[in-house]
Design goal:
The complex is a heterodimer of chains A (about 280) and B (about 325). Chain A is an alpha/beta fold. Chain A is built from ten helices and seven strands. The N terminus of chain A is likely disordered. The N and C termini of chain B lie far apart (about 45 Å). The longest helix of chain B has 18 residues. Chain B contains twelve helices and twelve strands. In chain B, helix 10 links the parallel strand 11 and strand 12. In chain B, the strands form two sheets. Chain B has a seven-stranded mixed β-sheet with strand order 2-1-3-4-6-5-10, with helices on both faces. A five-stranded mixed β-sheet of chain B has the order 7-9-8-11-12, sandwiched between helices. The chains are: A alpha/beta (about 280), B alpha/beta (about 325).
Chain lengths: ~280, ~325
């Protein structure tokens, strides 16, 4: 185990090996990291399959009409994982793939955290943690008031849900029985400072969401078929919001970065590191 | 003023289906008419300020105009990041109605006093900051809120405040109102916001009895500040005095000072800023007790102005 690599609880997940599409999406993520010479590597890599399944199979949207009234809303509340979102939005044609090369550059639309109004397909500007679920509650209530069947999906990080505001929002969603709202947790078990178990233990996590009146399941967050099956079940209950806890691996797909808090964010990513990142994905 | 403001939320909601009310944990029976007639647009969400602001942002992103109401200090300090990021960064039409701006909650102590609300709200890009002087003016302000594009902070006074505003003087967000115009050319000008305008009008009457003629300009909108009005009155003034029920650091007087320094430079008249010092008030009593401690009652304002006028006379 490399220095800084944290011991992560055994999950006994029989995750299938990454297929070509998952590797392709990760190579696009590396393209953005190369363009910006920086980025949240670990936090983006753990999200790739969640974003892939949402945009390939689940969400309703029109890339040429990002504000289409009846679209589903996806808020990436853990805004620092934005590279995984940018990759999917570019892939689906919300903006040209070449934009990825400009990541974090002076005049780019793609910043280190996503901004609504700047990036087509980004619903809300996030980055400060613990905001997305409340915004999602408001959107879900608005859909109800406007009699739209749009669904609202809020993707949060595990470190992020340390924030008290998340639990205020969870109480509120439960109270309003927002079956059109889904909380997704990218549970990679490592936050910036180290293992979530040591920094701010979240367990028993599934019980917490249940206690806040969410219908809850957990799933292997890198198993595409399992994720598809989980999201296709939405809503998990007709009278409650849903929570899907995705067990993931920080830095997934880059063997030397997996489960290593040091790869949460990297700056000054030089060419040799870029080469290693690409090599890891062969 | 508070009752009028909330009644207006109900009236606006009847007029426009975009309007939504969100309270935190307010008095029982609040806006029951709205709750009964349009339950899908009436929310009471408990003591969850951060959530309530985010929720209002989500609704506003979908075309609604949410009116959020709780105690001023909690709707500003407690959820400051949500106000900054969810509302101001997205420039959303959410209205924050803060009960008990300034020293209204004097008997409840420093946790409930909103002394820096104006300063911290005006520091946020896109935020509009308002403090009207009475219930009649509140109606005029509320009528402008459905279609104002960005977020608005609406500072409420105690309630039952004397009505000094006059309909014939008009009302537009960002436009100051001349409540009293001195006859002399080089006059003393009192610029005030919120109910301090009322105290300034009383101070002006006291000063008139002493033969000191002053103008009183009411700034119900602190941001965007009516810079033209500041300059129009400051240019020829013998003295500009700003009066506010809030800390002087970054408050209304600071905003006026910024304009005067930048625009008038060396021809700037003397500036006297009356407001709260850099401290948490530690007395109780009533709002007027604290105003008295900080020299913001009409007689005290008049005395400070008279002192300046007399000093000037001696020099002459």
């Amino acid at each position: 185990m490399a220095a800084g690599q944290a011991a992560v609880q055994a999950l006994n997940l029989a995750t299938p090996p990454l297929d070509d599409r998952s590797k392709h999406l990760r190579r696009l993520a590396v393209r953005a990291l190369e363009g910006g010479e920086r980025g949240h590597v670990g936090s983006s890599m753990s999200l790739v399959e969640i974003m892939r399944v949402l945009y390939d199979d689940i969400l309703r949207y029109r890339p040429a009409e990002p504000k289409w009234r009846d679209r589903d809303r996806m808020i990436l509340s853990k805004g620092h994982g934005c590279i995984a979102l940018y990759v999917m939005l570019a892939e689906k044609g919300f903006f040209p793939l070449e934009e990825l090369d400009s990541f974090c550059r002076r005049d780019s639309i793609l910043g280190g955290h996503p901004e609504a109004g700047k990036v087509p397909g980004v619903e809300a500007s996030t980055g400060a943690l613990g905001h997305g679920l409340s915004v999602g509650v408001g959107m879900a209530l608005a859909a109800r008031m406007q009699k739209r069947d749009s669904r609202v999906i809020v993707v949060m990080g595990d470190g992020e849900i340390n924030e008290g505001s998340v639990w205020e929002a969870a109480m509120c969603a439960g109270k309003h029985k927002l079956s059109n709202l889904t909380a997704v947790i990218d549970y990679n078990k490592i936050q910036s400072a180290g293992p979530t178990r040591e920094i701010q233990d979240l367990e028993p996590l599934i019980d917490k969401w249940r206690a806040f009146n969410f219908a809850t399941i957990d799933v292997d967050g890198h198993d595409v078929a399992a994720l598809r099956e989980a999201f296709q079940q939405l809503p998990l209950a007709q009278d409650r919001p849903s929570a899907i806890i995705c067990h993931t691996v920080k830095g997934k797909g880059i063997a030397f970065a997996e489960n290593d808090a040091n790869w949460h964010h990297k700056s000054k990513i030089a060419n040799d590191v870029v080469a290693k990142l690409y090599a890891a994905l062969e | 003023m508070r009752q009028t403001c909330l009644n207006m939320v109900y009236e606006l909601a009847k007029r426009d289906e975009r309007a939504v009310f969100i309270g935190s944990d307010l008095s029982p029976g609040l806006l029951t008419n709205m709750q009964k007639e349009m339950p899908e647009r009436w929310y009471m969400e408990g003591i969850t300020e951060a959530n309530v602001i985010g929720m209002a942002a989500g609704m506003a992103m979908e075309g609604h105009v949410p009116y959020v109401n709780t105690i001023a200090t909690f709707i500003t300090r407690r959820c400051y990041e949500q106000v900054a990021v969810d509302l101001c960064l997205h420039n959303l039409p959410v209205r924050l109605i803060g009960n008990g701006g300034g020293l209204v909650y004097a008997p409840l102590g420093p946790t409930h006093l909103a002394i820096e609300d104006i300063a911290i709200m005006r520091a946020l890009p896109n935020m509009t900051v308002t403090a009207v002087c009475d219930a009649k003016e509140m109606v005029r302000l509320m009528n402008c809120t459905l279609d104002w594009p960005g977020p608005i902070y609406i500072r409420l006074a105690k309630g039952g405040d004397p009505v000094v505003s006059r309909e014939e003087l008009g009302f537009a967000i960002g436009k100051a109102i001349t409540m009293r115009r001195a006859r002399t050319r080089r006059a003393i000008v009192l610029m005030a916001t919120g109910v301090m305008t009322t105290n300034c009008l009383k101070a002006a009457e006291l000063l008139a009895k002493d033969g000191i003629d002053v103008s009183v300009v009411h700034f119900h909108t602190i941001k965007p500040l009516d810079e033209e009005a500041v300059l129009e009155f400051a240019r020829d003034a013998e003295l500009v005095a700003t009066v506010e029920e809030g800390v002087k650091i970054g408050g209304f007087g600071s905003a006026v000072a910024d304009v005067m320094i930048e625009q008038l430079s060396t021809s700037m008249p003397p500036l006297l800023r009356l407001g709260l010092p850099d401290e948490f008030p530690h007395n109780y009593g009533l709002q007027d007790d604290l105003l008295d401690i900080y020299g913001l009652m009409p007689g005290q304002i008049a005395a400070q102005i008279a002192k300046h006028a007399k000093k000037k006379a001696r020099v002459a």
